[in-house]
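Handout, section B. The chain below has 361 residues.
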Amino acid sequence: MTLKFIGYIGFNNTSEIHGPARRILDRAYVEDAARAQEAGGFDRVLIPFGSNSPESQIVAAHAAALTKRLGFLVAHRPGFTQPTLAARQLATLDQLSGGRVAVHIITGGADEEMARDGDVGSTKAERYTRTDEYLDVLRQEWNATVPFDHKGRFYEVRQGFSAVKPSNLPVFFGGSSPEAIAVAGRHADVYALWGETLAQVADAVRKVRHAAADHGRKPGFSLSLRPVIADTEEAAWAKARDIEDQVRTVREAAGLPVSGHRPPNAGSLRLLETATGNRRDARLWTGVAALTGAQGNSTGLVGTPEQVADAMLAYADLGIDHFLIRGFDPLGDAIAYGEHLIPLVHAKYAARQDRPVALAG
């Protein structure tokens, strides 16, 4: 197993600790972040998706033109583009980037976010059923050597065929509900988890492995974290507390809640339950998750680079082979991870290769 690191390119150099961005799409930041993460040894960077944000594939295409080695994990929501067209768009980007593209399938968010793009009245179960069929059509478009027909609940294709095929385009997929696990078992090349406790991650890995085994598949696993590193453990935890204070101040100034959250999806609910203690296991920090309602990637590992690297390797022992890491100072933290964390994890992992580990079964 080889460990891979995924960074993050938002659309401007802001995060939960900042107020509203002056520029929603900051081209200079996108370019600087792409170059810095390529230089820092990241394997890929995630380009996020939102119902009111810039378009992820176009941003990925721009960043790919500025880099040579860096890969791109393009977040994509099924249901708003026909799967045949999406397949050709992604395959085209894969070809133009020299095989550096992966797609992260985001099935759905809160009902109000889905409605902004015209998806009104669908249920979570329906969305996962739609995603399942969407990915069936997507892969047919990528793999078919002759025109194909498809007639399903959500899509009908007659003599579909793409002349452009991807050379290497893995599908990342996340979701904690039973419906999500079933779809992941059928389609995920890499299953993506948020940063939870070791026990929770081990349980999720087992469930997805079992679901995938029914289809003869063996997915990889990605864990999303917000590392907070400093020269000493005391300084790192002080930095984490300061981040919490900044997040609280920004949210209160914007009239956003810092408690009493009721997230709509199973993954956020699980993460919010985990966040009741602020600190779990040895280094898992949940302070920002508690303040924000566990919206997305909001938990971290705190300590010196050596301590955080050891904590990451504990997850690797459970089967995690991708780490998606991003900070609260997006560009500055990405540079620091490339200098102080990524090389250390690789070195420690290489030194342990002869040691037996207990993988989640």
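Note. The first helix runs from residue 27 to 39. Compare this with the example in section A.
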